[in-house]
Design a protein that fits this description.
By secondary structure, the chain is α/β, with parallel strands linked by helices. Helices cover about 50% and strands about 15% of the residues. The chain starts with a strand and ends with a helix. Bound molecules: BIS(adenosine)-5'-pentaphosphate. One of its GO terms (biological process) is AMP salvage.
Length: about 220
């Protein structure tokens, strides 16, 4: 199963992606996480990406496409994957389709998680991520039991550098201008499913898995 999670910053792609990994046993491939890891390592790729990320802009396609090609060629992606934060513009979506056509493994679904702007901003401003195990919390909607400490592993919770008001506004602007056109791109050939992204995380997850399971049973019936 090859799935794209589409949605604005803060819509819940990372949160739902983690749950999908547990349910379907395929990896979540987050370009944001891969880029943050490269920045943390101080690699050449990370040094190139950092300025764009700090400014809330997209990292150049050449960098991201090379990185994704390498990640999807790894053995754990052979049975499928959940793409989180990729593709981000039409050029990336077309490149992904070309890549998948070459391997004879087309994309199955693009799931759009729909959330209003006010909720997106509040979620991003309140987000906390464990520096050790990457579990995500939220000051407002899902606080940890002990302030600043991860419930899962006891690690330290950190606030992402790009989750400040000015950068959030830039990221939302980039989403509107560059990523939103992908809704039409995937709706055009019936690969898009829209999920209401407001409400309980488990209820949203149930809606997502209903769409995925329906697609899986169509494939089994063929
Ligand atoms: P990236 O890391 O992809 O960030 P993003 O798209 O801005 O998405 P987020 O991770 O902010 O949000 P999310 O949808 O995963 O929400 P989450 O589940 O955490 O990208 C960062 C940067 O990297 C980009 O700006 C760009 O520079 C670069 N980049 C990445 N990919 C690129 C690409 N393909 N091309 C070029 N550049 C690229 O949830 C958010 C919060 O809400 C959490 O606290 C969570 O607990 C809470 N929450 C989740 N669901 C709910 C719910 N139902 N109710 C209440 N709260 C909820």
């Amino acid at each position: 199963m090859r799935i794209v999670l589409l949605g604005a910053p803060g819509s819940g792609k990372g949160t739902q992606g983690q749950k999908l990994v547990e349910r379907y046993g395929i990896p979540q491939v987050s370009t944001g996480d891969l880029l943050r890891a490269a920045v943390g390592e101080g690699s050449a790729l990370g040094r190139e990406a950092k300025g764009f990320m700090d400014a809330g802009q997209l990292v150049p396609d050449s960098v991201v496409l090379g990185m994704i090609r390498e990640r999807l060629a790894r053995p754990d992606a052979a049975q499928g994957y959940i793409l989180d934060g990729f593709p981000r513009n039409l050029a990336q979506a077309e490149a992904l389709d070309e890549m998948l056509t070459e391997t004879g493994q087309p994309l199955d679904l693009a799931l759009l998680i729909d959330v209003d702007i006010t909720s997106l901003k509040q979620r991003l401003l309140g987000r906390l991520t464990c520096s050790d195990c990457s579990t995500v919390f939220n000051t407002y909607t899902s606080p940890p039991r002990r302030p600043g400490i991860c419930d899962q592993c006891g690690g330290t919770l950190i606030h992402r550098a790009d989750d400040n008001e000015a950068t959030i506004d830039k990221r939302l602007g980039v989403y509107e201008a560059q990523t939103k056109p992908l809704i039409e791109y995937y709706a055009g050939d019936n690969r898009l499913r829209r999920i209401a992204g407001i409400g309980d995380i488990d209820t949203i997850f149930a809606a997502i898995t209903a769409d995925i399971d329906a697609r899986l049973s169509q494939q089994t019936a063929r």
